[in-house]
Amino acid sequence: MKRRVFVQWVRLVILVLFMNRSFARLSVEDASLIEQVCQKTPYHDLCVSSLKSNPKSSSADVKGLARIILELFLDAAKDNLVQVKKLLNRATDPAIKQCLDVCSNEYDSAINVWTPLALKYLESNSIPDAITEVSNASGDAETCEESFGEVSRPSPLTAENNYVLHLGKITEGIMVILKK
Q1: What CA–CA distance (Å, rounded) separates 74 from 95?
Q2: CATH code assigned at 57
Q3: What is the DSSP letter of 58?
Q4: Per-residue confidence at 99, pLDDT binned at 50, 70, 90?
Q5: CA–CA distance from 137 to each of 75, 89, 115, 129, 142 (Å)?
Q6: Residue 138: CB partners within 8 Å, gap ≥ 6?
Q7: Which domain holds residue 57?
Q8: How far apart are CA 109 and CA 96, in angstroms?
Q9: Span of the secretion signal (predicted)?
Q10: 117: helix, coil or strand?
Q11: Is the pLDDT of residue 26 over 50?
């Protein structure tokens, strides 16, 4: 009886040790994939930190990593639109209001047109079309930022616009890997 319990205990310990090695290897492989993918994108550090902050990335393939960054892009664009609307409600300068109207329209397109199309094309493996739509959506953040320069006003959204733009460039970089 004692021998049987001892043998079962040893089996359990071996199983646990084996599983720990397997999980450790998987997490190293996952980190390696993230690192390999992010090396091929602009804004490497932002790419790595964004992907590692999402638990889904640990089991994602390259296409899954592109989807995760694209979803972060969409969330950031939505956050920016909320910020634009708040600024628009408080703005008194007609030139700033005009710029914020541009930003509102641009982010609305990024959120409701370009990014959903990019996700659709990514899912259907139409990678060149997905890249085009991500580029369109990123261009909306750029247009928002540039609108302030056109009226010689400082943009209150520079950091936010750059964040969205950088996520877009990272997404495009990952999608280029998928194209190969």
Answers
A1: 27
A2: 1.20.140.40
A3: G
A4: very high
A5: 13, 24, 6, 12, 9
A6: 164, 165, 168, 169, 172
A7: 2-179
A8: 20
A9: 1-24
A10: helix
A11: no
